Each structure stands twice: as structure tokens, then as C-alpha cells.
Amino acid sequence: MDAFSMINGLLETTKYFLDSGFFKVVKFFIAIYIAVLFVDLILVLIARGVGANIRVAVKGADIPTASKKKMQKRWMDIESRLLSGDMSQYKIAILEADGFVNETLGKIGYKGRNMKEKLEGITDRQLSAAQPLREAHSIRNEIINDRNYSIDRERAAEALNIYKNFLETIEII
């Protein structure tokens, strides 16, 4: 028997084995086993919170997965207060915008009991909008601390634009 016929015989035997009923049953059980392993892998990744890790890798922070339309509606409600022509509505708009940004900073991982502490923990290298946010937050503090604080529409719009730019930068609105 020469090497060619021996290799040919081995290939034919392998072909008959792979086409046999026994091997089809083995392939069926292996396919089920692989499917179960795949489902287990997905469940382990979900249990570990890999979604947050992916958001951190893609966006640089674990930005909340709230509906963008819902956040845009919330922001439009805040901005609509500027249309009233009433200074008290301007103040409320700034307070709501500051609260919105404070919530967002907390959700993306900045620590602190309030906005001031969160902003103190942020460097300009981490967040380019940190200094403008500090300035807008100081307007909010003036509103809270001085009952007679007066603000015009332009100044309120400037503060809201600072908050809006931050929210747009991190793609919340």
C-alpha cells in the first residue's frame, strides 16, 4: 500500500465519520452547549455592569442613558421661562438649569453634596466648561442669597447658554 492510497483511505473514513448519524448528534449537542455559553457570557456581562464600562470607553464618562427627547423637553421648558418677560421667571430658569446640571454631574460620577463641591473637584483639563459653569453657578448663588438680586433677560440668557453648552458638549440635549 502506497502513501497516496493510505491518505485517500483516511480521507474517506473521515468523510464517512463526519456524515454519520453519531457525529450529527454530537454536533447538535455542541451547538446547544455553545448557545448556552453565549447566553451565560451575556448575562455575566450584564451583571457586571459592562454597559457603564462601554459608555465610559465611548464617551469618557458614564453619561446617564435617559431619553434625549425627554432631556431636550426639560431644557426647552427651562428656556421657555425667558420668554415671559418676568425677572422672577428668569431667576427660576437659572435655578432649574443649575439643578439640571448638578444632577447630570452627579450621574456622570462627579462627587460632592452640592454643585459647588462637584465643581471644585473638576479641573479644566477634565472638563473645559468647568470655569464657565462656576461663573453661572455664582449667579445662581446670588439669586439664592440676595432676595433683591436683579437680573435682566440678557444676563439670564448668558447663564443659560453656559449650562446649555455644557449639556450639549456631553450630549445630554
Number of domains: 2
Radius of gyration: 30 Å
Overall average residue pLDDT: 87
Basic shape? rod-shaped
CATH class of the largest domain: Mainly Alpha
Order of helices and strands: HHHHHHHH
What is the distance, rounded to the nearest whole angstrom, between the alpha carbons of the first and last residues? Answer: 78 Å
Secondary structure class reads mainly alpha
Counted by DSSP, the helix tally is 8
- CATH T-level topology of the largest domain: Four Helix Bundle (Hemerythrin (Met), subunit A)
Low-confidence segments, ≥5 residues, pLDDT <50? Answer: none
What portion of residues belong to β-strands? under 5%
The CATH architecture category of the largest domain equals: Up-down Bundle
Main sheet properties: none
Protein model, in words:
With 173 residues, this protein is an all-alpha fold. The chain has two domains: 3-48; 68-169, Four Helix Bundle (Hemerythrin (Met), subunit A) (Up-down Bundle), CATH 1.20.120. Helix content is 73%, strand content 0%. It contains eight helices and no strands. It has helices at residues 3-18, 21-48, 50-59, 68-80, 87-107, 115-120, 130-145, 153-169. The protein is rod-shaped and about 105 Å long. The mean pLDDT is 87.
